[in-house]
Amino acid sequence: MMTALILTIALIAAVLASVYFVEIIAHRVGQPYGTLILAIAVTVIEVALIASILLSRTPGSEAVVRDSIFATIMIVCNGIVGVSLLIGAIKHHETVFKSEGSNIALALLITASTLAFVLPTYTTSTPGPNYSLPQLRGAAIACFILYVTCVCPNYSS
Predict the structure, then answer these.
(1) Tally of CB atoms within 10 A around 42
(2) What distance in Å separates the CA atoms of residue 58 and residue 64, rounded to the nearest whole number?
(3) Is 57 left (phi over 0), alpha (psi -120 to 50) or beta?
(4) Cβ atoms within 10 Å, residue 26
(5) Distance of alpha carbon 116 from alpha carbon 140, whole angstroms
(6) Is the pTM of this model over 0.90?
(7) Three-state DSSP class for residue 89
(8) Grouped pLDDT means (10 residues each) for the chain, 157 residues
(9) Cα distance between residue 58 and residue 88, in whole Å
(10) CB–CB of 19/41 below 8 Å?
(11) For the chain, how are helix, strand and coil distributed in percent, rounded to 5?
């Protein structure tokens, strides 16, 4: 029990230290590349944590990973937008939400979520809501293409 607590504290400290140094690099690089560097760093950290859960081979670890990804999607879709609107309303007494900035990101999130969570339910090549290896590769390539088409136009000057 004590070992798990020490490892958890060490993991949190390592994540916070890495985000701190990535933020310094992002400030030096400037906009828009600094934002992209921060997003990639956070994604790498999240993928590493998910991979460590999957590599533990604990029964039910797949469900933990699926639920944590789903929770992240819900936090992004509901939590961040809601808190931003709430803070804006408290500070300015009136909040105007312009959807132009979030349309592309939400469309990417919804499409990738459908590829990852909904479509495996309708595949018949493997038992259960799972992709076969070729289907998984195709879904990964499709998600990568979606990401590149949404990010590259925003960062090309």
Answers:
(1) 14
(2) 10
(3) left
(4) 19
(5) 9
(6) no
(7) helix
(8) 86 88 90 82 84 83 82 80 83 76 78 86 83 89 86 64
(9) 43
(10) yes
(11) 80, 0, 20
